[in-house]
Design a protein that fits this description.
The chain is α+β, with helices and mostly antiparallel strands. The chain has 13 helices and 13 strands.
Length: about 425
């Protein structure tokens, strides 16, 4: 206990004082002798302090720890104990760091630690395999000097966490997806993943859909032609006419599914967003779509009210924005009962976005279905959706078109009010 150590010190001081007084009493020069005794005690204390200082500055080796008692023993012991704890802590930290480095080194994704000036501080083994960057030889160099890719340089300047796709300097057949992950102090980690297999699968899927669609379209066109001939045949028995009409409707529906699948496949495989300079006259597209819907699907069953800002245009793909409009309008009409009022609103918002909202006063959509509405072939009411001629791909197409234009689609619903809200970002808005 600390009190035991200090009792030794008090005992030592008492002996020194007592001996000094006794010797001074017997000496003809008491004060001189007494001062010499005190100086001797102070010198001994300084010697012990020197031993401690020498031990601390020479690595605090346990076998060289000063041999003493009292408070000096406790001080040396506490220093030695703190040193052992520090050594153990460093050992554990080293083990953790080695384990962490081992984990990072075996990861298939490249990880490159960059400082605030884009100098390479560390890189794992995958960085050599994917990018040709070696930790041993390239550490300290600027990554722009080793990887000369404009998209990567732009990403480093933007300090953004967005993902980009770049070719590998190791192989022309390898495609990489890179992103920056911020750390404290301005450091960042460049994470790079090999997505060659995924891109190849995507190309294979796209080719399969295109080939299958082509092979299906020809027989469907032939079947529909024969069905029309049979329908117009005056000798056709009357009881067969409904069946032929239903068959032709299903064939037309199959053709629409094929077209939607091709459109969705194209949207999913596109990597570059539409050009900003391509002006799309959305008010005109809305007017044409509303007129076409009113003459066909809506007919006498639905009423349509539209509020359209006449000069509000956007930059993007006219073909894809048209599909957004037609799919949202057709969806609102197909999945609401007769007598429903459809409200269409195309206006700019306070934050600069250009938003298209399609609202209906139908029965609404249960909340559990809302997160899944933009999934492929998802149907709230399977039988009713098929009866209304929907393909189950319309909202998936809308979602991908909006994402491709850097926008978003939100859906809210409650009994008596369902709103589909598609917004384009301010940078695509033209007044």
């Amino acid at each position: 206990m600390p009190t035991d150590y200090w009792s030794v010190e008090r005992y030592r001081v008492a002996i020194v004082l007592g001996a000094g007084i006794l010797v001074a009493y017997l000496s003809p020069y008491p004060w001189t002798v007494f001062i010499l005794v005190l100086l001797g005690y102070i010198g001994w204390m300084l010697y012990k302090l020197h031993q401690l200082q020498h031990w601390l500055t020479n690595g605090q080796k346990p076998e060289e720890m000063p041999d003493s008692d009292g408070a000096w023993e406790q001080i040396a012991y506490l220093f030695n104990k703190a040193q052992q704890k520090n050594i153990e802590r460093k050992r554990k930290q080293k083990e953790i760091l080695m384990r962490f480095n081992h984990i990072l080194s075996v990861l298939p994704d490249a990880a490159i630690l960059l400082d605030a000036e884009n100098h390479i501080e560390w890189a794992n083994k995958a960085a050599d395999k994917l990018l040709g960057i070696r930790n041993a030889t390239d550490s300290g160099q600027r990554i722009e000097n080793l990887l000369r890719n404009p998209d990567l340089h732009k990403l480093l300047k933007e300090d953004s966490s967005r993902k980009i796709i770049i070719p590998s300097p190791r192989s022309d057949n390898m495609s990489l997806r890179a992103r920056l992950l911020p750390l404290q102090g301005g450091s960042r980690v460049l994470s790079v993943r090999d997505i060659s297999e995924g891109i190849q699968l995507q190309k294979t899927r796209k080719a399969f859909i295109a080939n299958a669609s082509h092979e299906l379209r020809t027989p469907l066109t032939v079947l529909m032609g024969y069905m029309e001939l049979f329908e117009n045949d005056p000798e056709l028995p009357e009881y067969l006419l409904p069946h032929l009409q239903q068959s032709r409707e299903q064939a037309m529906r199959m053709q629409q599914i094929i077209s939607d699948m091709l459109a969705l496949s194209r949207l999913e495989s596109q990597e570059v967003t539409p050009l900003m300079g391509n002006k799309v006259d959305v008010p005109q597209l809305l007017s044409q779509a509303i007129q076409a819907i009113s003459d066909t699907l809506a007919g006498d069953t639905h009423s349509i009210d539209a509020v359209i800002e006449p000069d509000l245009c956007v930059c993007g793909s006219e073909k894809d924005i048209t599909s957004v409009i037609t799919n949202l309008l057709a969806n609102a009409i197909r999945h609401t009962p007769a007598g429903t009022c459809i409200k269409i609103n195309w206006q700019s918002e306070d934050d600069g976005k250009a938003c298209l909202s399609v609202e209906d006063n139908g029965p609404g959509i249960p909340e559990k279905h809302l997160p899944h509405l933009t999934e492929r072939f998802y149907r709230v009411d399977e039988g009713r959706s098929r009866a209304n001629g929907g393909t189950g791909l319309g909202l998936a197409i809308v979602k991908h078109v909006m994402q491709w234009h850097n926008g978003n689609l939100t859906i809210t619903s409650q009994p008596g009010k369902t709103v589909f809200h598609a917004c384009f970002p301010p940078e695509r808005t033209l007044d």
